[in-house]
């Protein structure tokens, strides 16, 4: 039997939502081991002069704890 834990993180990108998600998971994997998935529960953009300047996501990362 394995036990999993969930950690909530925020990530941003000036390219796209996909890039923000990938960047967030890549960064989380530097300190969390055994990442099994992520649930994106919020997406938003920041704008300046009517143009998107930043893509932001809030995610819940699921990872399995070591024995």
Short key terms for the protein model shown above:
67 residues, alpha+beta, 3-stranded antiparallel sheet, 3 strands, elongated
Kindly summarize this structure in a few lines:
The chain is α+β, with helices and mostly antiparallel strands. It has one helix spanning 17-28; strands at 4-13, 35-48, 51-64. The protein is elongated, with a radius of gyration of 14 Å.
Explain the layout of strands and helices.
Layout: E1 4-13, H1 17-28, E2 35-48, E3 51-64
Antiparallel strand pairs: 1-3, 2-3
What does it look like?
The protein has 67 residues and is an alpha+beta fold. 18% of the residues lie in helices and 57% in strands. It has a 3-stranded antiparallel sheet with strand order 1-3-2, with helices on one face. A hairpin with a 2-residue loop joins strand 2 and strand 3 (51-64). It is elongated, with a radius of gyration of 14 Å.
| Low-pLDDT residue spans | none
Shape: elongated
Helix content: 10-25%
Distance between the termini: 10 Å
The helix tally amounts to 1
Radius of gyration: 14 Å
Strand content: over 45%
Q: Give the overall average pLDDT.
A: 95
Give the strand order of the largest sheet, numbering strands 1, 2, ... along the chain.
Answer: 1-3-2
Structural class: alpha+beta
Order of helices and strands: EHEE
């Amino acid at each position: 039997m394995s036990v999993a834990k969930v950690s909530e993180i925020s990530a941003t990108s000036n390219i796209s939502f996909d890039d923000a998600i990938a960047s967030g998971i890549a960064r989380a994997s530097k300190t969390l081991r055994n990442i099994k998935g992520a649930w994106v529960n919020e997406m938003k953009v920041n704008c300046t002069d009517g143009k998107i300047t930043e893509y932001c996501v809030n995610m819940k990362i699921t990872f399995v704890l070591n024995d």
